[in-house]
Structures are given as C-alpha cells and as structure tokens.
C-alpha cells in the first residue's frame, strides 16, 4: 500500500468540536461512566462536553495501605432532565430532527440524504441515564497511569506498530509527530481497536441533540455525523461508537472528524473506523494542529532537591532547562538533561511525595487532545514504554487518598467561604482550585504543592470553615 497523504484536507470549514475521550475519572475532579457497551480507555477533561464511557482493565494491585477506589452515583436536578421534560422531548423527537434539515442543508447535506438517514430515527432514551447517572471512580493519578500503562498494553502497542510499520513511518515523516505517541493514543482510546463502542452515532447524537440538557452542543455533532455518512466517508452501518458519539480507532467526535480527519491512504475517504492509516494520520494531524514540535519529547521525569520551592510547580511558570538545572532539578539515575534552551513547566501529578516531571510544549499538544494531566501523562509514558523505555523511577505514593466528588465539592466550598477563588463549586479541580489550595497550604504551613488531598480537607474542617 502506498501513502499519498493529504495533510491539508479538511472535511468541513467549521472548526468546532473536539476529540472526545472517555471516562474513569478521579481525584482530578472529573467524572465519567463505564459500561460494557462502551469504549476502553481514557479520561475526560473539564472541557469535554459529554464523557464517552469506557470499560477499563482492572486496576493493578496496590499495597494494602492505599484505600480502594470508591464508586458512587449521582443524579441531576437540571430542569431539562426531569421525567416530564424528557417525556416531552421524546414525543417531540421527530419534529426536532426535522427542524435541523435547514442546518444540514447549509452544511452540504442534500434534502434526499437528510430524509434517507433520518427516516425512522428514534431516540435512545437509555442514553439519558448514562448522561446523568454516571458512576464516579475515585482514583489517584498513580492508579490511573499504572492502570493504563500496563504490560499488556505495552506489548500490544509494539505488535500493532510492527504490523503497521509502514503507516507509522509515513505518519511520522508527514506530520513530524512522534508515531509512538500516536500509537499510545490508539491503545488508550480503544485498546488498539478492540473496544470502539456499539452505539450508532447518528442515533446517539440525534438523541442528545433533541433530548435532555446538551441539545445545543449536540445539534452540531448530529449535523456533522449526517455529513459524514452523506459524503460516504464512513458507511452508516460502520459509524458506531460511544453513547456520546465518539467513534473510530482513536475516538473522534463528528465535528472533530470534520476538522482533523485526513485521507491518509488516498482512497478518497477519511475513514477513521476501518482504515488504520486514516485513523493514525488523522490523530497525528490533530496533534500537529495542537502545536506538536518535531524532535522534542513530551516531558522528562526529574528529581527535586531538598528544600525545593514547590510554588514553582505551576504550568504558568515555565523555565529553561538551564534554569531548572540551576535550581537543583536533575533527571534520575544521572540521565542527561535536554537542550539547555528548551522550556518546560514542573508538574507534580501526585503532589510533593510523588514523581515529578518537566513538561514541554508537546505535553501541551497532548492536553489539547484531551485536557487532563493524568491522561496526557499516561499517553506520553505509554509511548516511551512501547519504544523500549523504562518505568518511572520514583514510586507513586501509597498513602494518598483520592477525594470523592462530594469531598472535592466540600473542599471548594470551604475554601470559597474563606475568600479563596476556586471557580465553580462543582467538584472539578481546575486551575483556580489548585491555586486556591496552594495559597491555603502556604497559609497553614503545608507543603504548597496544590494537591487537594484528605490532609488539606481535614485541615479545612479543623479550621472551622
């Protein structure tokens, strides 16, 4: 097979939507869901509109001192999700779909194609339960990374890259993206194609476009999905994925497919479901458009000196490698530091007692694929392990308890009551909350690593706030 990639080809002029990656979230303040019908793998960030569900491999065994992850479920009180509102939307479903014909026509879907693909379409009301009653998995960053970067996934990644060596070589040359990172995304998103989801994308996005609380967002996704099947890029019978509409070997949302998909095998269609070449080329294109810089690693494990100023562990405080060296930061086991002029920021995903990393612009490119630190770290580490690299040298702490979503919300509420800016009090630990935690840690004499742990929550409770 020859590859004559079309790296500049876009399937639509609208740069909307994003790659959707899924579920299993944790102490990072993110919630997802798991279902045997859904896709294996990853982790949804705060900006992900609806997390695609995954069935994950069992977590590795941990020492007894670490509490087991807790699962809980919750329901929404959103007015669009009441029984009466859902029943009304279900009755109005056909009319709602018909109302989107002008929008689809404006995006190039003919009247005949619109009627063909929407005829007899019915809502899948089981999706509403998935949307609103999602089990919350409470895992630390260490649990999450070790779960995903398993020996089985490493082995299968090497096998997949060997089987499709020509594709990965061409992807690397065309886009300047590390092909091992592309393979790692494939492995974490769908277990190298073994778990892509079984929900018809047209029905799933149509349901979410007309029923419940995410209608405005999913109308664009539904119209984009119509465009995909109307153009013949992916046959309707093959366009299946998660309940939230993500599909393909590396899980594209329909609008993300329009923006980033490429016909890498030059057969006339960008088919990220059936063509490994198209899926890997499209994923590399996504990373390149996200700012990937050729010839640079995603990041480096480092060891911090005693007495280190943990206020420097901030993604807004990037420094050159020369500057980090001057501060006593070293790579473990005497490994050489990168180019002195290369810039990076310090990330402590498990706080001051866990591994430390200097993250480059390429880590940011992975974050643009999915904006969650643990996801991007797992991608980078899996890529290195597939390449033949070693496990992390520094152990993950065994005595850190990940907070449940209820506890994270309580922590935010207690911080906000003391005047700290935490952003929305929603249990999602974004940059504002981490900054507030760091400021509080400074005030009470804790190591200011910005980690929302049980220690911080206990301190807030004892403070009477």
Automatic annotation (TrEMBL):
Molecular function per GO: peptidoglycan lytic transglycosylase activity
Residues of the Peptidoglycan binding-like domain: 405-460
Signal peptide bounds: none
Region (Disordered): 53-79
One annotated GO biological process: peptidoglycan catabolic process
A Pfam family that the UniProt record links to this protein: SLT_2
Transglycosylase SLT domain location: 93-384
Domain of life: Bacteria
Protein's recorded name: Lytic murein transglycosylase
Organism classification: Bacteria, Pseudomonadati, Pseudomonadota, Alphaproteobacteria, Hyphomicrobiales
């Amino acid at each position: 097979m020859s590859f004559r990639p079309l790296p500049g080809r876009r399937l639509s002029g609208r740069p909307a939507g994003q790659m959707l990656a899924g579920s299993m979230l944790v102490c990072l303040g993110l919630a997802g869901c798991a279902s045997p019908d859904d896709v294996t793998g990853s982790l949804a960030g705060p900006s992900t509109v609806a997390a695609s569900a995954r069935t994950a491999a069992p977590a590795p065994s941990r020492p007894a001192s670490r509490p087991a992850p807790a699962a809980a479920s919750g329901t929404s009180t959103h007015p669009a999700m009441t029984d009466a509102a859902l029943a009304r939307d279900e009755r109005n479903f056909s009319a709602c779909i018909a109302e989107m014909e002008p929008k689809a026509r404006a995006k190039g879907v003919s009247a005949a194609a619109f009627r063909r693909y929407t005829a007899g379409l019915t809502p899948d009301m089981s999706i509403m339960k998935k949307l609103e009653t999602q089990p919350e998995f409470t895992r630390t960053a260490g649990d999450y990374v070790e779960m995903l970067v398993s020996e089985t996934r490493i082995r299968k990644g090497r096998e997949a890259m060997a089987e499709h060596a020509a594709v990965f070589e061409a992807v690397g040359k065309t886009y300047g993206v590390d092909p091992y990172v592309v393979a790692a995304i494939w492995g974490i998103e769908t277990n190298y194609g073994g778990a892509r989801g079984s929900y018809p994308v047209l029905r799933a996005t149509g349901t979410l476009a007309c029923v419940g609380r995410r209608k405005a967002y999913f109308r664009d996704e539904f119209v984009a999905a119509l465009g995909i099947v109307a153009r013949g890029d992916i046959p309707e019978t093959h366009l299946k994925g998660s309940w939230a509409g993500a599909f393909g070997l590396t899980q594209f949302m329909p609008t993300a497919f329009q923006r980033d998909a490429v016909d890498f095998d030059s057969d006339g269609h960008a088919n990220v479901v059936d063509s490994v070449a198209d899926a890997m080329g499209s994923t590399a294109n996504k990373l390149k458009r996200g700012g990937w810089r050729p010839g640079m690693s995603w990041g480096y494990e480092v060891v911090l000196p005693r007495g280190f100023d943990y206020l420097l562990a901030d993604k807004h405080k990037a420094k050159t490698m020369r500057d980090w060296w001057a501060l006593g930061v070293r790579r473990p086991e005497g490994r050489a530091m990168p180019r002195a002029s290369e810039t990076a920021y310090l990330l402590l995903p498990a706080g001051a007692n866990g591994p430390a990393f200097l993250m480059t612009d390429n880590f940011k490119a992975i974050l643009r694929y999915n904006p969650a630190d643990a996801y991007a770290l797992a991608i980078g580490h899996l890529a290195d392990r597939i390449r033949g690299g070693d496990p992390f040298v520094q152990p993950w702490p065994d005595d850190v308890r990940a907070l449940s979503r209820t506890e994270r919300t309580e922590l935010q509420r207690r911080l906000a009551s003391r005047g700290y800016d935490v952003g929305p009090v929603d249990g999602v630990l974004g940059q504002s909350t981490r900054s507030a935690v760091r400021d509080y840690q400074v005030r009470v004499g804790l190591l200011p690593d910005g980690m929302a742990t049980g220690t911080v929550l206990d301190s807030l409770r004892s403070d009477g706030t």
